[in-house]
Amino acid sequence: MSNTQGQATFFKLTVTLNKKEVPVFTYTNLDDSPVCGNVVVSQYSSISYQLIDKTGKGLKFVGAAFTTPFDNIINAITISSDGTLIQLTDLDETPGNTGFQFVLSNSSNTLQVLSPDPQVINTPEH
Q: What is the rounded distance in angstroms from the CA atom of residue 15 to the CA atom of residue 92?
């Protein structure tokens, strides 16, 4: 039986720079408690990440890159028009897990920034 309501998960993704100008990615819940950014899904879900850019480099989400884009774990991504929010849609129809990296642009140059590898793990209830 499918759940039409689904589940929503929301993370803040804060990016800072270390002393060598290397981006440091930190994931937190809405209450600012630290988490790893991974999600376990057992029903239709929307997984959102809000970008908090503390680099001064004008970071924006431009996508999410998957090493296994055809595994049907994540079914779609949507990015807000201002590039500060990315939403992953998981219909939870396929068991398994997938890793991905966020792709961010910056206003300092034309290079793109990759995040560490959070994972979505599907454990369908059907």
A: 29
